[in-house]
C-alpha cells in the first residue's frame, strides 16, 4: 500500500529540461494537479473524498470572436525557458541543450531520448481512487500525422503507452499504415486507444452544400466509405469525413449530420462529425433544431458517434490566448448540452496546437501541454487531442513537433489526474484554467 501512495503523492512531470549557458529560469515546483471539484490527494494514506461543489458556468449565448485558420509564419516572441512541474532535485535522464532562439532549425533535429520513466502502477492508482469516490484520468494529448514528415519516435510512444495501459490519441490523414500498427496494439492489449482516420482532397474535405442535406450526406458518405482503407477496422478506428465546415450552414449541417450518422451506424462505422475550426461555431449555431437533435443522437451512441473539433491558439507564445474562446471552447458546447439536459457527447480534438507552421521551443511547448492536459482531464467524453503536426508540408513543422515525442512520452507515463467518479461529472468552471 505505501509504495502506491508514494507514487500518488509525487506524480512527477518527467519532461524535458533545458540547460542554458547563462541562466535557467526556474518555476515553483508543483504536482500534476487534480481537477477542480475534487481535492488533491491528501498526504496521509487515508483518502477523504470531497463532494463536487457547484461551479461557475460559461454564460449562454456568449458572443465569441470569429477567428481564421492559423496565419502562416506566426512570430514567436517569448524566449523564456520554462521548467514545467518538476519534482525533486535530481534528473532521471541526461539534459539536452536546445538553442535559446525560438526560430526552428532548417534541418531535421531529433531530441535525445530521455531515460525511460519509472511507470506508475495506474491500475493500483485507479483502484485506490475509485475506493474513495474519485477516478483516474490520463494525459490525453497525442499527435496528428500524415504521409511524409518526421515521425521518429512515434512507434516507441505508442508501444510504451500501450505497455503501461495508458490510452493514446492518434489522428492520421491519408496514411493508414500508422493506424494499422496502432490498431494491432488495441487488438492485442485491449487498451482503448483512440484512432482517427480522414481522407483528404477535393470532394472529401467539405460536403456539397448546394445539394439538399440528406442527398449530400448520402453522396459524401459513399465517397468516404468506399475510400476507407481495407486494412482498418471500422469498429476500432473513427472515420472523420469533413474538415472545418461553414458555421453559417448550421441547420443544414445538423440535417446532414443526422443522415450521415444514420448511414454510419448502419454500416458499422464510428463517425466523427464536423471538424469545426478553432473559434467556431457560435453558441446559437449549436442550438438549431436539427443540430440539437444530432447532439441527442450522438449522446445516445458515445462509442459510435462523436463531434470533431479543432482547438488552436494561433500563437506560439500563448496557448491560452483569448481563453476560452479558442483553446477551451469545448466548454461552451458542454454548457449548452447541460442546459438542454442532453448527455455530453464524445469529443475528438482532431487538431490541436499553436500555428500551422510553428511549434514553441520544447520547454514552453511542454508547459502548454501540461496546462491543456489538466484542462481536458475532468471530461471523460473528451477522448484526446492531436498535436499539429508530424506529417508533410507546412514548412518544417514536422521536425519541430517531432521534438515533443520523447518528452510527451515521459510526461504521459509519469502523470495522471484525479477526477469525479461517474456518474458524477465535472461542472464547467472556465475560471479554473484562466491564466
Give structural notes.
The protein is α/β, with parallel strands linked by helices. The chain has one domain: TIM Barrel. Helices cover 29% and strands 13% of the residues. It is built from 11 helices and 10 strands. α5 (213-227) packs across α6 (250-266) and α6 packs parallel to α7 (289-300). The model is unreliable at 1-113 (pLDDT under 50).
- Which percent band covers the strand fraction? 5-15%
Contiguous uncertain segments of 5+ residues: 1-113
Distance, first to last CA: 37 Å
Question: How many helical stretches?
Answer: 11
Q: Summarize model confidence as the mean pLDDT.
A: 80
Helix content: 25-40%
Radius of gyration: 21 Å
SSE string, helices as H and strands as E:
HHEEHEHEHEHEHEHEHEHHE
Q: Which CATH architecture would you pick?
A: Alpha-Beta Barrel
Strand order in the largest sheet: 2-3-4-5-6-7-8-9
Q: The CATH topology is what?
A: TIM Barrel
CATH class: Alpha Beta
Number of domains: 1
Amino acid at each position: 500500500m505505501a509504495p502506491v501512495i508514494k507514487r500518488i503523492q509525487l506524480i512527477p512531470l518527467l519532461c524535458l529540461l533545458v540547460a542554458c549557458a547563462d541562466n535557467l529560469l526556474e518555476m515553483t515546483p508543483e504536482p500534476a494537479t487534480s481537477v477542480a471539484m475534487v481535492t488533491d490527494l491528501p498526504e496521509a494514506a487515508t483518502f477523504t473524498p470531497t463532494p463536487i461543489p457547484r461551479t461557475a458556468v460559461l454564460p449562454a449565448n456568449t458572443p465569441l470572436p470569429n477567428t481564421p485558420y492559423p496565419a502562416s509564419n506566426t512570430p514567436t516572441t517569448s524566449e523564456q525557458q520554462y521548467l514545467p512541474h518538476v519534482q525533486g532535485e535530481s534528473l532521471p535522464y541526461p539534459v539536452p541543450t536546445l538553442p535559446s532562439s525560438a526560430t526552428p532549425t532548417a534541418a531535421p533535429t531529433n531530441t535525445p531520448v530521455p531515460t525511460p520513466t519509472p511507470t506508475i502502477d495506474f491500475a493500483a492508482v485507479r483502484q485506490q481512487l475509485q475506493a474513495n469516490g474519485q477516478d483516474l484520468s490520463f494525459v490525453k494529448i497525442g499527435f496528428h500525422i500524415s504521409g511524409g514528415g518526421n515521425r521518429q519516435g512515434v512507434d516507441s510512444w505508442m508501444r510504451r503507452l500501450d505497455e503501461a495501459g495508458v490510452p493514446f490519441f492518434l489522428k492520421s490523414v491519408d496514411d493508414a499504415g500508422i493506424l494499422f500498427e496502432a490498431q494491432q496494439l488495441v487488438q492485442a492489449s485491449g487498451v482503448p486507444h483512440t484512432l482517427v482516420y480522414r481522407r483528404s482532397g477535393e470532394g472529401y474535405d467539405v460536403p456539397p452544400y448546394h445539394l439538399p442535406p440528406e442527398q449530400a450526406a448520402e453522396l459524401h458518405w459513399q465517397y468516404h466509405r468506399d475510400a476507407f482503407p481495407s486494412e482498418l477496422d471500422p469498429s476500432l478506428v473513427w472515420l472523420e469525413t469533413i474538415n472545418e465546415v461553414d458555421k453559417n450552414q448550421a441547420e443544414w449541417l445538423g440535417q446532414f449530420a443526422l443522415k450521415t450518422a444514420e448511414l454510419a451506424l448502419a454500416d458499422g462505422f464510428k463517425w466523427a462529425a464536423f471538424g469545426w475550426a478553432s473559434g467556431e461555431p457560435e453558441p446559437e449555431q449549436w442550438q438549431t433544431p436539427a443540430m440539437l437533435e444530432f447532439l441527442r443522437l450522438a449522446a445516445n451512441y458515445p462509442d459510435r458517434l462523436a463531434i470533431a473539433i479543432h482547438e488552436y491558439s494561433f500563437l506560439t507564445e500563448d496557448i491560452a490566448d483569448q481563453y476560452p474562446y479558442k483553446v477551451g471552447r469545448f466548454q461552451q458546447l458542454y454548457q449548452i448540452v447541460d442546459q438542454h439536459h442532453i448527455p455530453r457527447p464524445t469529443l475528438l480534438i482532431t487538431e490541436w496546437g499553436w500555428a500551422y507552421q510553428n511549434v514553441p521551443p520544447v520547454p514552453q511547448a511542454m508547459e502548454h501541454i501540461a496546462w491543456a492536459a489538466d484542462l481536458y482531464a475532468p471530461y471523460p467524453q473528451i477522448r484526446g487531442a492531436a498535436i499539429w503536426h508530424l506529417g508533410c508540408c507546412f514548412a518544417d513543422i514536422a521536425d519541430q513537433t517531432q521534438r515533443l515525442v520523447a518528452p510527451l512520452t515521459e510526461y504521459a507515463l509519469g502523470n495522471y489526474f484525479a477526477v469525479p467518479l461517474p456518474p458524477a461529472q465535472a461542472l464547467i468552471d472556465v475560471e479554473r484554467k484562466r491564466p
